[in-house]
Description:
With 505 residues, the protein is an alpha/beta fold. The protein is 38% helix and 21% strand.
Amino acid sequence: MKIINSLLSWYLRHRLPRLQRYWKTPQIVQNEQLKSLIHTATNTIWGQKHLFSNIKTVQDFQRQVPIFSYEDFQPLFQKMLDGQSNLLWPGLIGQFSKSAGTTSGASKFVPVSYENLKKCHIKGTLDTSAWWFHLQPQTRWFENGKGLIMGGSWQYYQNSKIIVGDVSALLMQFMPFYAKWVQTPNLATALLPNWEEKLAKMVKICSQEPVTNISGVPTWTLLLFRQMLDFTGKSHILDIFPRFEVYMHGGVSFEPYRQQFADLFPSPTMQYREIYNASEGFFAAQIMPQEYEGMLLYLDNNVFFEFLPLSELDKTNPQALTIEEVELNTSYAMVITTNAGLWRYLIGDVVQFTHLYPHHIKIVGRTKQFINVFGEELMVANADAAISTICQQHQARIAEYTVAPIYLNANQKGAHQWLIEFEQMPANITTFAHDLDIELQKLNTDYAAKRQADLAMLPLRLQVAPVGTFHRWLRSKGKMGGQNKVPRLSNQRDTLESILAMITY
């Protein structure tokens, strides 16, 4: 396996100057990305409709191409699923990510071209590995070690040859041959569609392997770890994987799970890195947490980024900003243009910049996952940070949670209803709820203003869900494993009511 280390070292030497270039000249690099994307798609049906041949500047592009949501693109995506080629991107798109989303409603199918897999997803993975090797010269990731991936599965769409599935499954299917040598479990096991069967096999196979790194969503990774401990009789994951170095996490905030991982990895040398690898592309990664808060935005990954101030979100002609126009600590809805034919696509994530030159971001919420029924503007980042802090104070651990509003009516004031499944209950649930409400007020001035003297909102109401409730709900939706996750916040009560209907005490 020393060959793998040598290959990555070679790759790093050739990539590092390019990676460092966009730290100083982000707009120049981004303009190059946009120019290349437009040139490649000029003769597509989309490119001809939007007169790509006339586009010379970013301003031309923004004038000629509106901002689109998934719902706007969905009819075109369906035509591509049905086999139409040269529509949004040259040729036939052979892969679609079946987006986990928030698990509510119908599944979303997002095109993932071969170029997008190779020059965005896989390239982003290699760049992240390259940074790790550069900044951790003592690493022995692949010298007698393997990486474990908590992935999903794929299948053929209806009777076609088009593949649809979790983006992690598509990546495993098309990863470079040398990467397959150093991954566990084997591809057949990793891509099993039945989550319970896959988990049982992974426990037996992977607990016997010399795993040094893991990538996956925290919720499913914790489930695997706990079953491994039961299977092996060990006390900690480091007893199973003594050479373990780093856990790469994404999909949901890590903060509510940090203490649980610390309990499983009782070592001061254990490291954690956040990655932003969505269905639509690999956008960012945490590379130097001691120096920069947030994740480094990958600006030369065949993605052109724009950032929409939230005040522009519902306007008829919203004005998006380029990378050189953004400001620190301001919330933006991220807009992407990619080599999968996503043109000015509103991905749904809300980010803030934590550092400029180099540009680092953190995900603070979703355009459809927040609560603003009473003007409180509560974002997912507020909720995750608050629950993490209060769990530490009360020596509690959560498995999952979701929040929805209790609407105003003639008989009652409004409030937020929290449904929490605990792995370790607090000693006093009433005090826990009170402290959580106070912490939310500290983190969010709008929430605090609406809670003042109980005039607009009453204290939050907390209901405890029995152990296993959220997994049962996900299973009922066919959303076990992979990148599937429970929606944290919603302005509606549909998800909460759906989960409550499954609870029997």
